[in-house]
Every structure is written in structure tokens, then in C-alpha cells.
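To the wet lab folks,

You asked to see what we're planning to order before we commit. Fair enough. Below is the target structure as C-alpha cells, and below that is the sequence we designed to fit it. If anything looks off to you, flag it before the synthesis order goes out.
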């Protein structure tokens, strides 16, 4: 019989997955809006922030993931990391012109300094978040499921980003994001929520039975990057490469998506358009994890990539509300269901007892490479974008639909790579 997931595990998965993703949504989709609205950040500034955060996330996950294997414990790293993650989010309240300006010499731009401070504090927040979520939480999830229920658990986990987006979109409706006071309230609410969940985790998380790694710590750190590891796990590293291409496609447009809806399309109430799309895509993602369990990667990934591609095409060619909603729905369905099937496939291929030390290579394919390459492509596409003059006299760029065309181009490369791999695999079996 299929191994049933316990209610305590499911509660922990949903709680930590959701609150962690809410914090990531604020970072990945709204810190750029914060810099854009408060300090006049450019596309280049946003690209630098995303890349710096991606590098921090990758290095942190490599080091802390290996540490969690060495300790043989996940709970303390998850809970402690969430608590410190929340504290770092609270620190953003201090990033205000009225606080920083008196400390600067004459002629020094407060906005430029604050943009730099946002990028630095984002890296600090990413360090704690990646320790808790990318490294320890993901290793805990890998250890807590098996091949019979991994797709179902991954479907729930992959749904969380969309539920988080819905929660953040809905919650942010109560705030005027052009006011510094609103951002302070947001950072306080999110920071305290993350701290509270971290404390609760000390009591509710079930520590999976894992053997402590007896290897020297340094060896566990570099394990995932050794040629011998790659050779012994060829299929795993192929799907990590494919996952990197998938996430590059997403990161081409994602850092600019909210700004595109609000500024380029003039959708002041974009939440009302996005919320139904998010709800429908979330429901599909839960089902799609189970489809992976029954039908396998080839079938489930093919439809995910098709939805994503069609969503890109619609978003590239249309600007009115109805087709933008349809394009956004298909894009989100493809994005989240794709995350579910790639995540489940990669977890299936991770050797037993190596979950922590291989989180580093996973994060390279999910965050580091996409976080550097994707926004760079997006920035290049937007290099000639039109600009507008804000009420405070600062000039801001206006994203255009070219970001969706560039994302589609990367997605087509992924399709070709998967098709070639499947063809070569069949040839070897003949």
C-alpha cells in the first residue's frame, strides 16, 4: 500500500512551506518594487540585487546543507533559521531616507546609498532564509517522504509559492505602496510571522530518522561538485541542468512582473486579475504532483511546459485584462506544476543519506544560475525600454512584453534539451 503522509507532517509542511514562501515572495517580487518606488531603482539595480541574493543562497545552501548532514539534525536549523530570518526582515524598517540622510556627507545621494543597503540586507536575509528553508527544510522534506508519496508531497510544496503570492497580493491591498509607512508595516508583520513560526517549529517538527554523516565536513561540502559524484549520478545532474534552464526562463520576467502589471499595463487592481489565476493554478499543482506519481516525468512535464509556453505567447501579444488573465493563468499553471514535477524527479534521484549535501547543487540549478542569468537576460531586453518621470523627479524604466518573448526562447532550448536526452536514451536501449 502507498505510504500515507501523517497529519503532523502535512501541517508542518504546509506551515513552514507557506510562511517561508511568503517571505520569499516579499523578497523576490516586492523588494524590487520597494527599491523602485522608494529609491528609484533601475533595471540594473534589480538585476544586481537578484544576482547577489542568488549567489548568497547557493553558498549558504551548500555550507548549511552539508552541516545538516554532519549534525544529522534538521529541526534546530529550520527553527533557528526562521527566527533569525524574521529578525533580518524586521531590519528593513530602518531603511528610510530620514534615518540615513543625516548620516551622509553633502552631495552623497541617499537613494543610491539606500539601494546599496537594501542589496546588502537582502543578502543577509537570504543567508538566514536559505539556511532554514533551502538547506534544512528541503533536506527534511526529502528525508520525510519516499518514492510512493514524493509526488503528492512535492505537489503540496510546489503549490505554496502561488498560495503565498495570493496571500501577499491580498494582504498588500490594504497598503499604499507609495508610502514608506506601508513598507514599515509590511516588514514588521512578515518578520514577526516568520519568527513565530520558527518558535512553533521547535514543538511540531518531527525529526526524520537520518544517519549522521561520518565524512569530514569539507568533503560533504564539496560532495555534490565532485566529478565522481556527477559520474555516479548522471541522470540526477542532467535533470538539475534541465531545471536550471526552466528557472532561467522564469527569472527572465519574474523580477519585473509586478512592475509590468502595474506600470506598463496600468493595472492598479492587478490583484483582482491575479487572484483567481493563482487559486486555479494552486489547485492544479496539488493534483499535478499526483499525476507525476502515476504517469511519470515525461507526461507531466510535457503538459507543464506547454502551458507555460502558451502563457508566454499570450502575455507577449496582449495588453487587455481578459487575455492577460488567461496568459497569467497558463503561465502560473506551467510554472508551479513544472516546479512540482522537476522537484519530485530530482528528489527521486538523490541517493539515500545525501539529501543535505546535495541541496547545494539543487540550489545552484534552482536559484544561483537562474538568478544570475535570468535577470541579466531580462535587463538586456529592457535596456532600451522607455522611461517615465516620477512625482519626486526620479526617472524610472517601464518594462515591456519583450521579457516574455525572451523567457519563451529559453523555454524552447529546454524543450530541445529534454527531447535530445530522451532520444539518446532510447538509442542506448536499442
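Sequence we intend to order:
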Amino acid at each position: 500500500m502507498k505510504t500515507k503522509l501523517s497529519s503532523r507532517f502535512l501541517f508542518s509542511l504546509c506551515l513552514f512551506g507557506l510562511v517561508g514562501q511568503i517571505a520569499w515572495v516579499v523578497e523576490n517580487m516586492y523588494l524590487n518594487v520597494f527599491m523602485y518606488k522608494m529609491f528609484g531603482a533601475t533595471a540594473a539595480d534589480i538585476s544586481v540585487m537578484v544576482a547577489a541574493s542568488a549567489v548568497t543562497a547557493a553558498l549558504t545552501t551548500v555550507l548549511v546543507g552539508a552541516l545538516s548532514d554532519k549534525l544529522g539534525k534538521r529541526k534546530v536549523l529550520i527553527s533557528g533559521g526562521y527566527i533569525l530570518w524574521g529578525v533580518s526582515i524586521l531590519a528593513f524598517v530602518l531603511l528610510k531616507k530620514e534615518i540615513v540622510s543625516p548620516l551622509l556627507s553633502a552631495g552623497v545621494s541617499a537613494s543610491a546609498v539606500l539601494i546599496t543597503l537594501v542589496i546588502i540586507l537582502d543578502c543577509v536575509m537570504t543567508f538566514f532564509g536559505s539556511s532554514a528553508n533551502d538547506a534544512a527544510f528541503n533536506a527534511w522534506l526529502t528525508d520525510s517522504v519516499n518514492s510512493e508519496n514524493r509526488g503528492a508531497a512535492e505537489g503540496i510544496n510546489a503549490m505554496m509559492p502561488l498560495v503565498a503570492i495570493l496571500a501577499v497580493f491580498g494582504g498588500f491591498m490594504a497598503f499604499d505602496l507609495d508610502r514608506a509607512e506601508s513598507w514599515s508595516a509590511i516588514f514588521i508583520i512578515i518578520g514577526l510571522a516568520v519568527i513565530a513560526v520558527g518558535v512553533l517549529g521547535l514543538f511540531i517538527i518531527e525529526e526524520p530518522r537520518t544517519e549522521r554523516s561520518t565524512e569530514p565536513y569539507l568533503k560533504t561540502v564539496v560532495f555534490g561538485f565532485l566529478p565522481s559524484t556527477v559520474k555516479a549520478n548522471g541522470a540526477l545532474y542532467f535533470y538539475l541542468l534541465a531545471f536550471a534552464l526552466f528557472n532561467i526562463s522564469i527569472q527572465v520576467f519574474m523580477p519585473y512582473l509586478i512592475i509590468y502589471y502595474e506600470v506598463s499595463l496600468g493595472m492598479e487592481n492587478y490583484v483582482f486579475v491575479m487572484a483567481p489565476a493563482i487559486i486555479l493554478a494552486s489547485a492544479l499543482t496539488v493534483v499535478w504532483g499526483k499525476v507525476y506519481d502515476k504517469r511519470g516525468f515525461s507526461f507531466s512535464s510535457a503538459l507543464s511546459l506547454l502551458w507555460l509556453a502558451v502563457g508566454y505567447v499570450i502575455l507577449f501579444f496582449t495588453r487587455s485584462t481578459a487575455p492577460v488573465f488567461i496568459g497569467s493563468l497558463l503561465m502560473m499553471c506551467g510554472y508551479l506544476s513544472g516546479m512540482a514535477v522537476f522537484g519530485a524527479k530530482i528528489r527521486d534521484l538523490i541517493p539515500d543519506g545525501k539529501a543535505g549535501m546535495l541541496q547545494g547543487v539543487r540550489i545552484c540549478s534552482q536559484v544561483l544560475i537562474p538568478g544570475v542569468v535570468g535577470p541579466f537576460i531580462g535587463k538586456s531586453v529592457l535596456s532600451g525600454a522607455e522611461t517615465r518621470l516620477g512625482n519626486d523627479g526620479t526617472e524610472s524604466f517601464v518594462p515591456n512584453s519583450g521579457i516574455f518573448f525572451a523567457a519563451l526562447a529559453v523555454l524552447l532550448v529546454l524543450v530541445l534539451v529534454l527531447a535530445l536526452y530522451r532520444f539518446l536514451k532510447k538509442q542506448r536501449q536499442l
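Structural context that might help your review: The radius of gyration is 21 Å. The longest helix spans residues 110-144.

Thanks,
Computational group
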